[in-house]
Design a protein that fits this description.
Order of helices and strands: HHHHEHEHEEHEHHEHHHEE
Helix content: 25-40%
Radius of gyration: 19 Å
Number of helices: 12
Structural class: alpha/beta
Shape: globular
Strand content: 15-25%
């Protein structure tokens, strides 16, 4: 595995510590939860047999493997993520499935891509973690051939995603120091405002930009709910350092707060996201950016 990192050190440290290991642990739940997002990306016409595809922020590899199945033996799919634990898990999954997907442990913001190496670039909730998103998308444009398609899904705002923030809101009286999710900062809500994503794509030289809201019905098994919220997100991080009595109180309180989403044996919620698409311009009209240096 190749492991060159750029200046995005806070995110690299974050995803190579407790958080990365937690996502590996909860991988089956997250794959089920985000399957509708993955299906939407696979509907992108450019994801077709024989194409070369880059999956940015691939995590444990579910989308990368799905794309590899679609592009077939004459195509190529590469997953990239800064998290060594998740990349190792993704590679193991590919090996077990006998799929020709490749994985790179690196920061897409600074990685030295081969110029014009990909026909398509996709991401399922993986492009919101750059400390310099314009630089990152310039670098991705550098990796794309002329007229290559870019398609990614990112979260909309917290007010439209109450499921996402339920653990923090419910546990705040018991854990006053729980970190808040910050809109616009590197993290899940970096592109919460449509104007931010549009500005980043424009300034990084992408063309034919289209960003539209999508509301996706997601679900997973109720038996996995406590495992999910005690491992993932700000609550999952702070619970690892909480005394057992407080931890038990928090779990009970947060589980009750999720009751509106529990329907029989399932947890169901709506993921309010942006579906963003763009194309790399022709080389003759392409602006020179940092990613081209």
């Amino acid at each position: 595995m190749d492991t060159p990192y750029g200046a995005n050190s806070a995110q690299v440290e974050h995803w190579n510590g407790m958080t990365g290991r937690a996502w590996v642990d909860v991988q089956p739940v997250l794959d089920q939860m985000f399957a509708p997002l993955e299906d939407l990306l696979l509907e992108t016409p450019a994801v077709a047999a024989g194409h070369r595809v880059l999956d940015v922020g691939c995590g444990t590899g579910s989308t990368t493997l799905a794309v590899a199945r679609k592009v077939g033996e004459h195509g190529r799919c590469v997953g990239m993520d800064v998290s060594e634990p998740m990349i190792a898990a993704a590679q193991a999954r590919a090996d077990r499935a006998g799929l020709p997907a490749a994985f790179i442990c690196a920061d897409a913001q600074a990685y030295g891509f081969e110029p014009a190496g990909f026909d398509v670039i996709v991401s399922r909730l993986g492009v919101m973690f750059f400390d310099n998103p314009v630089r990152a998308f310039e670098n991705l444009r550098h990796a794309a051939r002329e007229k290559a398609a870019l398609s990614f899904i990112a979260w909309r705002g917290p007010e439209e995603n109450p499921f996402l923030t339920t653990p923090e809101r419910a546990s705040a009286p018991l854990l006053p120091d729980i970190p808040a999710r910050r809109v616009g900062a590197p993290g899940p809500l970096a592109f919460a405002e449509e104007a931010v994503g549009r500005r980043v794509l424009q300034q990084s030289g992408w063309a034919e930009i289209e960003i539209r809201p999508v509301d996706l019905a997601c679900s997973f098994l109720e038996k996995d709910l406590i495992h999910y919220f005690t491992r993932i997100g700000p609550l999952g991080q702070i619970l690892q350092e909480t005394d057992e009595r407080t931890r038990a109180q928090v779990i009970e309180t947060v589980r009750t707060a999720f009751d509106p989403y529990v329907k029989g044996a399932e947890v169901r919620f709506t993921a309010a996201c942006w579906m963003a698409g763009a194309r790399a311009p022709s080389r003759s009209t392409m602006p020179k950016g940092k990613g081209d240096a």
